[in-house]
Known about the structure:
Layout: E1 2-8, H1 11-17, H2 19-32, E2 38-44, E3 47-52, H3 59-75, E4 83-89, H4 96-107, E5 114-117, H5 122-125, E6 129-134, E7 137-143, H6 154-159, H7 162-175, E8 182-186, H8 195-205, E9 214-216, H9 227-231, H10 247-256, H11 269-289, E10 294-298, H12 306-319, E11 325-331, E12 345-349, E13 353-357, E14 359-363, H13 366-379, H14 385-394, H15 398-410, H16 416-423, H17 427-442, H18 469-485, H19 491-504, H20 507-523, H21 531-542, H22 548-565, H23 569-580, H24 587-603, H25 607-620, H26 627-643, H27 647-660, H28 667-684, H29 687-704, H30 707-723, H31 727-744, H32 747-763, H33 767-774, H34 781-793, H35 797-812, H36 835-838, H37 846-861, H38 865-878, H39 888-897, H40 905-927, H41 931-939, H42 942-953
Parallel strand pairs: 4-5, 8-11, 8-12, 9-10, 10-11
Antiparallel strand pairs: 1-3, 1-4, 2-3, 5-7, 6-7, 13-14
Amino acid sequence: MIYILIELNGFRQLKKIDSIFTDEIVKYITRTFSSDECSFVEQKNSIFIFSCKPDREDLTSLFNNTINLFNYLNSIKIELSGFNLLIDYLSGEYTNQHFKILIQHLFTLEDDESFYISSENLSLFEKFADFEQEGDFLKLVAYHENKIDTDETIINVLSHSREMERFFDYLSPLINNEKRGMFFYYGENVPGLSIMSYCIAGLLQGKDSGIPWLYIKPENSKISYTNSIVNCMDRQFLDKVPSFLNKPELSLWGDKKHLIFNTNSIVFDEDAIILFRIYLKAYSSFMEEKLMPAIIFILDSHDFEDLELKYISDVLEDLYIDFNLIPVLFSENEAIPAPFYGFQGIKVKSKAWELNINDSFQIESPVSFYHFSLNYEKENIRLSGPDSTLKVLNELGHNSRRFLIIYSLFYNLADKEEIISYLSTDQNDKYRNENYYFELVAKGLIFPDKSAEPVFKDIYKTISYRFNSEDELIIDKIINNVLDKSKGFKITVYEKIANLYRKLGKLFKEAEYLLKVIDLLIISGKTDIAGPFFERIASLLRADIEDKKIIELRQNIYFLKAAIYDNKDDFAADINIRLNKCEVENQFLNTERKIVCSEYLFAMYKYKKSLDIAKTALIDIQDSKNFNLKTIINLHLARILMGMKRIDESMDYFKIAKETVDRESDLYILIEINTHEAVVNFIDGNFSESLRLVDDSLSLCKKTGRRNWELFLLFLKGRISFELGDYSNAVILFSEGLRQCDIYMYTSKKSFFNIWMGRSYIYMKEIRYGLKILMDFQDYPEALYFSSEGLFFLEEYNNAYGTINLAFTMERDRNRFFCSSNITSFESGYDFIEDRCLVVEGGYGVLFQLIRAFRAFLMSKTKNEIEGRLELAKLTREERLSDIDLNNGFYYYLHSLTLPRHTGAEAVDRLTLLSKALRYIQKTASNIDNPKHRQMYLSRNYWNSGLMKEGRAQKLI
Length: 957
């Protein structure tokens, strides 16, 4: 039995003087040996005795923890009256006689404040430290802190194998530019084949450790198929990228680089591909400067989703010949991945690994090759490949197993240093965990590369280990730390945590995080990829899962949210009925249920009922500290009040929502608040404030990669410029929107940018060019309306009337019975802007009223003068216009233009209409807080300018 003796001179006296300090010392000593199969034996006076019976595999931990204690005691030696440490050995069970012998040994030590071992322990500890004989014991003179023989790591051993020589024979023509193409290396059912990439990189780089080798690994994510190419970019190389780029590339890189650090969020495919292209160009140029081949290692290609490999191959196909990039694919499947069929290259099958031990001995797996080498060198044992690996795994000590399993669960959620830090309670603990890590590296179970990945991702299936309550607390602690660290949008973190709980068999926890993923997918507008997560929830509900009703209710909440977002009104109606009958004993969940039911009523334009439910939801949680839920309710209340035309109240609730939002983690919600606030300020006529909010939101969209909202905001910004009469700037903004549609492949939105760009050209007096643009969009009532404006300016009144009449018929048939919550699904330039307030339930929006007014005006320019005048009179006098409609001045002005100028009742009527029109546009102008914008609105906006001129002529101003 190994005994550890700690002598603290004068401990009893010190305890009387400072008991708190001595309690800390005792706690530290006890904790030091708590995880090394050591037991506290006894304390007598100033001596502490521990007994240990460690596995040989745990000796590293035991020795290094004792060293750590020795260093700790040295650090407080001024407060102590001296100390000594002794690792002794005695056979048999502990008795009083053992105590007497151990104390006698301790008292014979010559030097104070030293670390001794008995000669019987030398064989156990000599590899960790240097000792010298002093009396009957050996005194520590130096120790090797965390030292590992780097010549014996798995990568170095494999690098000197015959298979590696053979590999390089095939690879050399590509490296030497004698051939172009890719290298495909495979071996059926050969685990660990991808470790060859680290061997190749190590051999090529020599002593230069700063090479940014490119490793693309499957992410196995259902959220994004481009995470693998974002994560492959070496973070340390990013600062060097700009020096290899031209001006346009530099601009794009500067605009999007931050997304590489934001991989917990959804990085849009287009952004990832652009970044990957730019990075590859810089990477190849850098490697050329280093006189090294630009190799792209595609690891475990058999585990990639088809779309992931397609993205990679599409980029490489354009670049690999021009930039001398060499794709090297590793696979456990013989077939070359389909996206790479068109590549020229070399296909090589991994042969048996030969060990030169007297005669040829073949092993299929590179990992088992290394493990065979370890076993043979250590014990001269010849086992098959799998048995060699199994022996290495079975010989792991308890603590090493625990570390390996927890590390394998979290390696893709945190880096090595973070995991060690999360597992450690103090410096002593950290030191111990670092040793477990280095031990596992030496055993070929963790790659000794900066990737620091476990060789076997699902090791928990191979070695037996039962998690205890302390382990479960550690796992929860690590998850909480990871979530705290993951600022901003945590969607991929949630997916990984759900997968982790699936491995642990914790179904409720898995479901909980899957639901978080679904919620964020809906918020981010990615309902199209939520299907697999809904299916996983459904399969969990079929299993014996705890709190099944809660999971089912939350699933239905998200079903309804997705249905509203996707405009599936029939499905939404069914789910809404189901939810109204469902209530559980969970305050926050019931509040969520009320909110989504209120959102459904809002989508049905039933604002009053929606408001009543939303208010009760807010009352339910008004005393809670659930600020996220309060933010969501206040945002929803603001939208309802906006729909009810209660603009001032709506603005108040937007401000309240902004006060409760977490500006670090709820950026998506902040974008929604700012965007809706920009819309409500637009409706209120404060174009300056609307513009400021649009710019704030655009900045957040760039930060989060929320491209669909960015397009809407660009469109709204163009609308603001148009309303201010800044038609040339509107053209620039709509053109930028078109460019973004092309980059991000939002082809469905290109029509609206084109239509409004055509209208802007018309108002810039480039009428024929504007009409030419609009000719391609004659299926849109909006484009027909704008075309009729252009024809009116050309004084082609009959053509203008025929065109507006067609627009009238088409838009009249576009009734609104259900409103999606997807702000980017606009069908005209007025949807989700004016129509958030002014659409009539089950009826028409602002576009129809504008078409109707302009059609009536054009009637008066043709043979239907009286009918046109009557229609405008009906619009402005008989029907009650909303006071908040920005177009009121336009309607009254058009009506005035249909009346004759001669004296009499009609002339007076005309002045009355002009006066009302002026009052409306001046009221709007007074809401604009930027004087420059106010002046533009009155003098550069085409219709307002005409109205102001007429008002002055009639002395109404």
